[in-house]
Amino acid sequence: MRRSLIAAVAVASLAAPIALATAGAAAAAPLPPKAPVTDFNHDGYADLAISAAGGPDATAPGQVSIVYGTPSGPDTAHAKTITRATPGVPGTPENGDRFGNQTAAADLDGDGYTDLVVNGGGKSVVLWGSAQGLTGEGTAELASNGAGVTAGDFNGDGKRDLVTAEYPEPEDPMDNDDQGMTIAYGPFKRDGKAASTQQIVTSQTFGPGDFVTGDVTGDGADDIVTSHGFEEMAHKSQLWKGGKDGVATTSQKLAPSVGGAVADVDGDGYGDFVTRDIGDSFEDMPYQKGTVLVRYGSASGLSDRSTKITQDTAGVPGVGEDGDEFGSSISAGDVNGDGYADVAVGVPGEDIESVADAGSVVLLKGSRTGLTGTGSQAFDQSKAGVPGASEKNDKFGGQVLLSDTNKDGKADLTVTAPLEDGAYADSGAAWHLRGSASGLTVTGITSFGPAALGAVDKGVRFGDFLAR
């Protein structure tokens, strides 16, 4: 059965009813399940987990702020900020501990509440969701402290799983063959133990560097895309197919890439891989104009059909310039409710008039023909209706996330500027734009920084990471 892939990252699955056949008619195909929601308190509204892990000279421990969704959007008045000092969370808070530098949202124990995995400052921990949301109570350490922790359902059993990068120390320093990934299959117990685990050698010289997950083949199991490289050299990314017996141990080789999302941008029931095309060099990434690459899904994997979009593509606002980094952050969701996944693209290096690296975000629209520049929208802090002002090195668009926080059936955009100055330099901030039938709108837009949530704000780089 093909699944709806409008959302890129699955957390708590909500199944839709199955269509019934009428007498004398052919049986109707099962309807796909609804897109999963990150919902820590299980009230039906998507919630946000915003990391403020701090920069290299951090003067405070890392923290993750939980902002709950409501009919009017994010509820900043009742946000909860969690650190290693929160009761129930193992470990000791330390300045610069980078707690929250990576997170993953998933209902790991199958109780209907989304849970949150947090890396940084020691072993990875899982914060358990509840009717009160995330509290820290009963927090468990996970067996792995692997990098790039990402969630998915890799065997299609309806239980959420985790994949992490593992880097065993080789006997021969030049032997990298045992670098790979570990898949921990759910359901997880409250002590953090997975039902089972699987280790896969990626057979790459270096990596995996990151993971993008989603159902490319439409078989009901999520697949995994891994990126690989070392220093300046980028190696081929790889697609690892999920299935009823777990993740396959052989892969489909792809062009080098970093990050992205798997989502159905053309509505054919197969997940499409939307990513940042980086060429063959990591070293050049900060200086690139930026290119978004779409590889379309099929029953056998990612097809040869592809699309490349830049700021020079017809319909896309702006002009591609060196250092724009168009595509440095990517998220997918159906913003206008037309059944096609749209794609938010961060452009943190965008110059706004004479202001260098102020940053912007672009929304690309999905359609029957796939992802195009037609109807694209762009937002920055100099655009009418957007709070704030474009300032040098704000990096607006550093992180983007599409999720339906007000439960109106249209994805809303959360975009961050981790280097935004508030009362202090680099305190960071987030903006929330609502989805509508015509796309994103500044009507009802909100913005907030860590101080508005009652969190530490001195140089914390709020918005460095958004859980998905």
How does this model look, in words?
- With 468 residues, this protein is mostly beta strands.
- It is built from no helices and 30 strands.
- The chain has strands spanning 12-14, 34-37, 48-52, 63-68, 75-82, 102-106, 115-119, 125-127, 140-141, 147-152, 161-166, 180-185, 196-201, 211-214, 223-230, 233-240, 252-254, 257-263, 272-277, 292-298, 301-309, 330-333, 342-347, 360-365, 372-379, 399-403, 412-417, 429-436, 439-448, 465-466.
- The strands form eight sheets. A four-stranded antiparallel beta sheet has the order 5-4-3-30, with no helix packed on it.
- Strand 28 (429-436) and strand 29 (439-448) form a beta hairpin.
- The model is unreliable at 1-34 (pLDDT under 50).
Task: Supply database-style keywords.
single chain, 468 residues, mainly beta, 4-stranded antiparallel beta sheet, 30 strands, 37% strand, globular, disordered N terminus
Question: How are the elements arranged and paired?
Answer:
Layout: E1 12-14, E2 34-37, E3 48-52, E4 63-68, E5 75-82, E6 102-106, E7 115-119, E8 125-127, E9 140-141, E10 147-152, E11 161-166, E12 180-185, E13 196-201, E14 211-214, E15 223-230, E16 233-240, E17 252-254, E18 257-263, E19 272-277, E20 292-298, E21 301-309, E22 330-333, E23 342-347, E24 360-365, E25 372-379, E26 399-403, E27 412-417, E28 429-436, E29 439-448, E30 465-466
Antiparallel strand pairs: 1-2, 3-4, 3-30, 4-5, 6-7, 7-8, 8-9, 10-11, 11-12, 12-13, 14-15, 15-16, 16-17, 18-19, 19-20, 20-21, 22-23, 23-24, 24-25, 26-27, 27-28, 28-29
